[in-house]
Amino acid sequence: MRQIVLDTETTGLEVKAGNRVIEIGCVELLERRPSGRNFHRYLNPDRDSEPGALRVHGLTTEFLSEQPRFDEVVDEFLDFIDGAELVIHNAPFDLAFLDAELERCTPGRGRTLDHAAGVVDTLVMAREMFPGQRVTLDALCRRFDVDASHRELHGALLDAGLLLDVYLALTSGQYDLALGSNEPDLSQRVVRSLDVAALQVRVVQASSAEQALHDARLAALEKASGVRLWPGTAAG
What is the C-alpha separation between 70 and 24, in angstroms, rounded? Predict the structure, then answer.
């Protein structure tokens, strides 16, 4: 199976307000293993980023003005994702922006999913797995012990790499079940590493006084019920 873990950065949150894609980051997975192939481009959006977005990604208008426009890299991008299943956190957001960019191209290139085999939305997966809990990428990195300490600002390729680890953690159980991996899962490794022969079980014997109290209690119960409660005893 070929999958592309994808993330974008944009000039703002609303595509209908004319905001644009300014960075695309993609990481390729083959049979759930990173292939080493990435696609990463900064893009000139021909506009400024909104202040809130700029604080998140830190990509200035001056820097982006020197980058290619989307229509200059569109064919390379579409070739990279062609026929692959996309893995995206909050897929409707990224797909809406990418579809708007594709529509601006001349000639139009259709929609993103016209070129891909489908999409997995890890935000939906995480909400189903952890209802009522925070499922941002940062929160999931903390939950699954994915190291995001180097993430001072959002970046498309950086976030795609983090999402890759989160996605594998989210779906690790499905993978072991569906593909029959030769690698034992964590629970198997823990059990196999347990040296049963080395275990020493402490046996505590009842004292004579405790045994006498136990026997008296049984005799009283048997006398009241008329039923023998323990082999070798009889109701009085």
Answer: 10
Tokens representing 41 are: 């481009």
Shortest CA distance to 118 belongs to which of 161, 89, 87? 87
Does residue 45 contact residue 73 with C-beta atoms inside 8 Å?
no
Whose structure tokens read 């000139």?
44
User: C-alpha angle with apex 60: 52 to 112, nearest 5 degrees?
Assistant: 75
Q: Are 133 and 45 in contact (CB under 8 A)?
A: no
Query: Which residues are catalytically annotated?
Result: 154
Class of domain 2-191: alpha beta
* pTM of the predicted protein model: 0.73
Contact 29, 2 (CB under 8 A): yes
- Which one, of 180, 186, 169, 85, lies nearest residue 129 by Cα? 169
- Helices (DSSP H) in the chain: which residue ranges? 51-57, 61-64, 70-81, 91-104, 122-129, 137-143, 156-170, 172-179, 186-192, 208-225
How confident is residue 231, by pLDDT bands cut at 50, 70 and 90?
low
Domain boundaries, the chain: 2-191, 204-236
Checking if the pLDDT of 179 tops 90, the result is no
Q: pLDDT tens, 88-130? A: 999 999 999 999 999 999 898 999 999 999 999 999 999 999 9
- pLDDT for res 47: 97
Between 229 and 15, name the one with better pLDDT. 15
